[in-house]
């Protein structure tokens, strides 16, 4: 099915073949060079361990050619799944702090963006996110790259990383600046912490969508507010189980969120790291919600409507989904 991906991370989308190629370019890295051993390396004990492994992969992105290669390969893997439009969450600071000049980093991702659209028709856009664990200086650097060097493909501003001990509200000045520059606000919240962080994201950071946000189930009044204001959650079922944010698929709060009328989209987060892909996430969501083909197509349409793609592009992509469904149920 043609579709849009709204919550997928740049480095976290590196498939084993891409990570192995990057590790081979940098033999001093602890990341295994062999795709088989990599699969084992990507089995997480808990959220903290996941972050540790993630950062060791981030450390493989050391020069502009690494960035370009990674971005193009991520785009290719998305296109292989018939993703037609993706908002890729990019964390420029983690690369610029490893010595890549901001301008060279932006040039590399933009080169890959233009090339993959030409080669495969995939429309890629960027969400620049603050790695929350690096605090306010990293927020300042991210905001500067987003607002002063603004690349053409940039549509939104985010906040990721561990949530516990990293309050959302402290990042308000940086979100205010990004919003004033016309960027959309899309912070992570309520993934590994609680519903309070979702409220902070909505009130202090003026979130237009929330990354994960699954802990809203603990605050019915907040769910009602998100439903009324039409603030969607970006749901990534396998990621939540893999990071132990939820105990199991059976215990996933998606059915409660859907029943409360909170808008949501289905996404893959860091697919190769979690042994999943966007198609599998749709099937899992379909099982959790008891959906047939028409229901799955409606999930795909929701993601398009909640995206920051221009109106003409949204209309086109919804029409592609409709055409696919017509052929599917014939
Ligand atoms: Zn995420």
Can you describe what's shown?
- The chain is of the alpha/beta class and 330 residues long.
- Helices cover 51% and strands 14% of the residues.
- It has helices at residues 16-25, 35-41, 47-58, 64-80, 92-96, 102-120, 135-148, 172-180, 195-203, 220-229, 237-242, 254-259, 278-289, 293-306, 311-328; strands at residues 3-9, 83-90, 123-131, 154-160, 184-189, 210-212, 233-235, 264-266.
- An 8-stranded parallel β-sheet has the order 1-2-3-4-5-6-7-8.
- Helix 7 (135-148) links the parallel strand 3 (123-131) and strand 4.
- Helix 4 (64-80) runs parallel beside helix 6 (102-120).
- Zinc ion is lined by residues 7, 9, 160, 188, 211, 269.
Question: Alpha-carbon distance between the termini?
Answer: 15 Å
Show unreliable segments. none
Principal-axis shape equals globular
CATH H-tier superfamily: Metal-dependent hydrolases
Strand order of the largest sheet: 1-2-3-4-5-6-7-8
N-to-C SSE string, H for helix and E for strand? EHHHHEHHEHEHEHEHEHHEHHH
Mean pLDDT: 94
Strand content: 5-15%
Keywords: Hydrolase, Metal-binding, Zinc
Domain Adenosine deaminase: 2-323
Family: Belongs to the metallo-dependent hydrolases superfamily. Adenosine and AMP deaminases family.
EC number: 3.5.4.4
